[in-house]
Amino acid sequence: EAQVTQNPRYLITVTGKKLTVTCSQNMNHEYMSWYRQDPGLGLRQIYYSMNVEVTDKGDVPEGYKVSRKEKRNFPLILESPSPNQTSLYFCASSPGWQGFYNEQFFGPGTRLTVL
Amino acid sequence: AQTVTQSQPEMSVQEAETVTLSCTYDTSESDYYLFWYKQPPSRQMILVIRQEAYKQQNATENRFSVNFQKAAKSFSLKISDSQLGDAAMYFCASSPGTYKYIFGTGTRLKVLA
Questions:
Q1: With B4 labelled, which of A75, B67, B69, B91 sits at a CA distance of 20 to 30 A?
Q2: How many CB atoms lie within 10 A of CB A30?
């Protein structure tokens, strides 16, 4: 089944404890992206990747890191989480980023709480 | 800056009736895509409909259609024959051809039986 998977689905952690949220897609998509969803703010793009080893900042990259060493994986790293990073996180992928190929497929979301 | 604005935080519609959700956007790009996504209580993001900016014909998908007014930068979603399963948060989004995606703040749709 074609899908985007995220792990963990739920995470409660404490301020300053490094964490990684994994994202994997099995559709051989070139483009992958991370979003955070907050009430009243919609989805905001954190980072995106156009291909392996090619990443760039979205609108809210502060406090986050990403890497794209393999085409299928795009982990989101919080080196020192803070309470303002409590949010619902989505990973998404698409075949490309232009034209017909920019329909995004979303993972199920990760609910992160930072105490 | 590229923006997407949804001015209706919440809307209600009677079952079997028609409802229109509003969206306006701002971009300096000449070629871009616009999307409507549905997010039911399960939180899964589901693509409802997509519009290519260079196409004048409004996109339709079964009961869902858009009214795309390029000059006015307006992209509204019309849901006909509303069903209980249409109750969800709806997000308007744009892909202005710069690798980025920009989402609106969402409209929560309630369907009344």
A1: A75
A2: 17
